[in-house]
Design a protein that fits this description.
mainly beta, Immunoglobulin-like, 3 domains, 6-stranded mixed beta sheet, 8% helix, binds CU-O-CU linkage, Laccase
């Protein structure tokens, strides 16, 4: 189905409308959305700028679906930028053409063009999200993707009375594409954002009626499920609510063993569902999102704040405040991450690969490469295994599917090209290699991937995101990964399953996954400041022999480059 022309799109909409009006025993399995990507004058922090939005909204519209639903999202590009939309965390079984990263699985939707993202949600339920996947447009082009269980299937925890989406993000007062283009050209650091936001608002600012802060009304005694999304470009965040603890029940659309916490830690790309019990009866309570950085950096910040407001309380009544975690509260972040375990129930088992076909070690870090236009003659670069990824001119999935040679090589090294004390003294040569190199996997092969941070320049945290497949986080530690000792401590029983993992500064994380989805799958740091300078690579998963084990042919309206 490739509804490209307006008349066929209209016919399809009518058809689905009629089908969904049929007696309710026929469940409507097709969900249709239209995204008009447009420039909208948007006022935040008391100043107005033209921002790229979906349907005029920041954050963008929430997509609701049930597990097993089929989604058709028609994206109409009415802005001057090339555009793609990514459905972050959706496995896209055999439907990589709908995944979205520019030049990886598709050419961009050019100004004036449209593309229908066409995919089925299989074996996933929970909170995911969507965002632009080109340049830094995702700063304002993002929204929630809520996948409810199949009709009649309950949550594996007491049903909340109500649910709310909480999107954490960052806001720049100036035009962000202009900022990054000049930073790249001159080789200067990227300007940090002007504010963090909670559901589009930074905090109540006096004398600024446009900035009241998000307010969440609750009724005493009720339970609320918060669907929290970190859509920030470059910041790992802490999230907390004064006077209340939260019960975490799901991350990245996989259920976890419920646990209580005062503070949630969430990296860009990740999602967390947590239950808030409105058990205090009355009052206003501060909700806050504040940044985490393992190394203290001398940057002032103001937390984003919102209010949990009990019904019956005067909104003018004082708000109960809370201490914000220190910016470098590593123990708090670590304790949160260590509490995450897969639910691993009979209905939702953790299918951790117990054997490993490919044992990989990728180092990650920052370097410097020559740059002719740069003020100091060089610019920051980032890498996996010392290779800074270069985006191709046509999409990798196209090149793979149609066997077009010369677009990429499949010789990405499974181990670092030079061995050294990764978290100790650094090599003097900070130059990285450049290339469009992929790692090839046979269908259904199993992978153990150790992501090793290096201490180049400054220790950095890296939230690493894999497209197309989830992984299990089987191990984590500080210093260098020890292949002799560390594997004996791996959790192969109930490790958390997710699509984005924070690799600790100066440490490592080990993940395992099964390459059961044919296609080309991007893996990258979800800090835009790192992904922009090359902290990216891709896996190419070959087709299997079975009937449902090959990439489907591309849709007719797939954009060309
Ligand atoms: Cu949420 Cu490749 O990204």
């Amino acid at each position: 189905m490739a509804p490209s022309s307006s008349s066929s799109w209209l016919r399809l909409r009518v058809l689905v409308l009629v089908a969904c009006l049929l007696p309710s025993f026929i469940q409507c399995k097709i969900r249709i959305y239209k995204f008009n990507v447009m420039v909208t004058n948007t006022t935040r922090l008391c100043s107005t700028k033209p921002a790229v939005t979906v349907n005029g909204l920041f954050p963008g519209p929430t997509i609701f679906a049930n597990e097993d639903d089929h989604l058709l999202v028609k994206v109409v590009n009415q802005v001057q930028y090339n555009l793609t939309i990514h459905w972050h965390g959706i496995k896209q079984l055999r439907s990589g053409w709908a995944d979205g990263p520019a030049f990886i699985t598709q050419c961009p939707i050019q100004p004036g063009q449209t593309y229908v993202y066409n995919f089925t949600i299989t074996d996933q339920r929970g909170t995911l999200w969507w965002h632009a996947h080109i340049g830094w447009l995702r700063a304002t082009v993002h929204g929630a993707l809520v996948i409810l269980p199949k009709l009649g299937v309950p949550y594996p925890f007491p049903h909340p009375d109500s649910e709310v989406v909480i999107i954490l993000a960052e806001w720049w007062k100036s035009d962000i594409e202009t900022l990054i283009n000049s930073a790249m050209k001159e080789g200067l650091p990227f300007q940090v954002s002007d504010a963090y936001t909670i559901n589009g608002q930074s905090r109540p600012i006096s004398n600024c009626s446009s900035e009241g802060g998000f307010s969440f009304p609750v009724e005493p005694g009720k339970k609320y499920m918060l669907r929290i999304i970190n859509a920030a470009l470059n910041e790992e965040l802490f999230f907390k609510i004064a006077g209340h603890s939260l019960t975490v029940v799901e991350v990245d659309a996989t259920y976890v063993k419920p646990f209580k916490t005062g503070t949630i830690f969430i990296t860009p790309g990740q999602t967390t569902n947590a239950i808030l019990e409105a058990d205090l009866g009355t009052g206003n309570y501060l909700m806050a999102a504040s940044p985490f950085m393992a190394e203290p950096v001398p940057i002032d910040y103001t937390a984003a704040t919102a209010t949990v407001h009990y019904s019956g309380t005067q909104s003018s009544a004082a708000t109960t405040l809370t201490d914000l975690p220190p910016r470098n509260a590593t123990p708090l972040a670590t304790a949160f991450v260590d509490s995450l375990k897969s639910l691993n129930s009979q209905r939702y088992p953790a299918r951790v690969p117990l054997t490993v076909d490919h044992s990989l070690l990728f180092t990650m870090g920052l370097g410097f490469n020559p740059c002719a236009t740069c003020i100091h003659g060089s610019r920051i670069a980032a890498y996996f295994n010392n290779i800074s990824f270069i985006r191709p001119e046509i999409s990798l999935l196209n090149a793979h599917f149609f066997n077009i040679s010369g677009v990429f090589a499949d010789d990405f090294p499974g181990n670092p090209p030079i061995r050294y004390n990764y978290t100790g003294e650094q090599p003097t040569n900070l130059r990285t290699m450049e290339g469009t190199r992929l790692y090839r996997l046979a269908f259904n092969s199993t992978v153990q991937l150790v992501l090793q941070d290096t201490a180049m320049i400054t220790p950095e945290n890296h939230p690493i995101h894999l497209h197309g497949m989830n992984f299990f986080v089987v191990g984590r530690g500080l210093g260098n990964f020890d292949p002799e000792k560390d594997p004996s401590n791996f959790n192969l029983v109930d490790p958390v399953e997710r699509n984005t993992v924070g690799v600790p500064s100066g440490g490592w994380v080990a993940v395992r996954f099964r390459a059961d989805n044919p296609g080309v799958w991007f893996m990258h740091c979800h800090l835009e400041s790192h992904t922009l300078v090359g902290l990216e690579m891709a896996f190419v998963v070959d087709n299997g022999q079975g009937p449902n084990q090959s990439v489907r042919p591309p849709p007719r309206d797939l954009p060309s480059c």
